[in-house]
TrEMBL record:
Keywords: Chlorophyll catabolism, Cytoplasm, Hydrolase. It holds the Pfam family Chlorophyllase. It is found in: Cytoplasm, Cytosol. Its EC number is 3.1.1.14. GO terms for biological process: chlorophyll catabolic process. GO terms for cellular component: cytosol. Its main location: cytoplasm. Pathway: Porphyrin-containing compound metabolism; chlorophyll degradation. It catalyses: a chlorophyll + H2O = a chlorophyllide + phytol + H(+). Belongs to the AB hydrolase superfamily. Lipase family. GO terms for molecular function: chlorophyllase activity. This is chlorophyllase. Gene3D superfamilies: alpha/beta hydrolase (3.40.50.1820). The lineage of its organism: Eukaryota, Viridiplantae, Streptophyta, Embryophyta, Tracheophyta.
């Protein structure tokens, strides 16, 4: 089943230029969107927490949602019940109990590079937790697996202490997601690789352009893909988001960032139902990151992969389908997901869709 369509998003605010150290500490630009009109926050206002709001009466999943949100940087070791790793948390400010999304960053990236995507999701009524799993790492993801499990086990002990008093995490509604190598790590944890388990149950799994290595036969340890159709054995719904340009070389100097044989297509082929598959045809592997990703690592995201025309469009698409999927499988409301499938809710990118439920 192939559906293709396009639309323009609202014009968001331009990001501030922040130093790499500030990016590592979570000093990231936050879009202030009020019916399409954005404005910047002065850097002095963003020491450890920042927020934005939207007054839209009705919410499209591809636009900013109805909740005011804040963004918090949490250092490990600095609280009564400290998290095992530093965290970036995006949460609604209004009172209520909210589902949780644990989001794992890509290879050698900072969690702060995803702050705009995180706040998009949080504005629709979710608490998004993004750990900084490492700053330097080799090919083996074993340590990331152990750290992700430790963070998951910490959530019920320490997360509530970091949120506003009227904001309550609903630990019975927990999803796991990751981008690139983080997507591989998310699937590896769901598959109980290295016999690692958690004391909280995940109910939904998302791979954002997941990558299992350099090429088929060159998977990084522990390998996730088996190349046996529908072989993934986990008891939850899964969604794979792919980039059409991820498997294309930017130039002769760099390999593709999401090579065929170890990319989104292969992950989807091994999913069991229910599974959803969305591919943004004309966008690249890093196009869901913040508009501004400074420092050497941020510059690399602009240079080593073939990119699409606009991170804003891709980020709106990724955030929107993630929200629709989470609403369907954490909250039991599949109206947005079905509307995207049936073209009633229009995505901001040219799109390929497949699914089996």
């Amino acid at each position: 089943m192939k559906n293709r369509y396009q639309i323009e998003l609202v014009d968001w605010a331009n990001p501030l230029m922040l130093s790499e150290r500030q990016l590592m500490r979570g000093w990231n630009i936050v879009d202030l969107v009020n019916l399409g009109k954005g404005k910047n926050i002065a850097e002095a206002q963003l020491p450890f927490m920042c927020s934005y709001s939207s007054s839209a009466a009705l919410s499209n999943v591809f636009d900013t949602g109805n909740y005011n949100t804040e963004l918090q940087w949490i250092e490990s070791g600095s609280y009564t019940v400290p998290p095992p790793k530093p965290l970036l948390i995006a949460n609604p400010l209004e009172a209520g109990a909210f589902p949780l999304l644990l989001f794992l960053h890509g290879y050698l990236l900072y969690n702060s590079f995803y702050s705009q995507l995180m706040q998009h999701i949080a504005s629709h009524g979710f608490i998004v937790i993004a750990p900084q799993l490492y700053t330097v790492a080799g090919p083996d993801i074993s340590d990331e697996l152990k750290s992700t499990a430790a963070i998951t086990n910490w959530l019920s002990k320490g997360l509530s202490k970091l949120l506003p008093l009227n904001v309550r995490p609903d630990f019975s509604k927990l999803a796991l997601a990751g981008h690139s190598r983080g997507g591989k790590t998310a699937f590896a944890l769901a598959l109980r690789k290295l016999n690692i388990t958690t004391n909280l149950k995940f109910s939904a799994l998302i791979g954002v352009d997941p990558v299992d290595g350099m090429d088929k036969g060159k998977q990084t340890p522990p390998p996730v893909l088996t190349y046996v159709p529908h072989s993934f054995d986990f008891d939850m719904a899964a969604m794979i988001i792919g980039s059409g340009l991820g498997e294309v070389k930017r130039n002769l100097l760099f390999p593709p960032c999401a090579p065929k044989g170890v990319n989104h297509e292969d992950f989807y082929n091994e999913c069991q139902k229910p599974a959803w598959y969305f591919v943004a045809k004309d966008f690249g592997h890093f196009d869901m990151l913040n508009d501004c990703t400074k420092g050497i690592r941020g510059l690399a995201t602009q240079c080593i992969c073939k990119n699409g025309e606009s991170r804003k469009l891709m980020r709106g698409f990724v955030g929107g389908v993630m929200v629709a999927f989470l609403k369907a499988y954490l909250l039991g409301d599949d109206s947005d997901l079905l509307a995207i499938r049936d073209r009633h809710e229009i995505a901001p990118v040219e799109l390929k869709i497949d699914y089996f439920v």
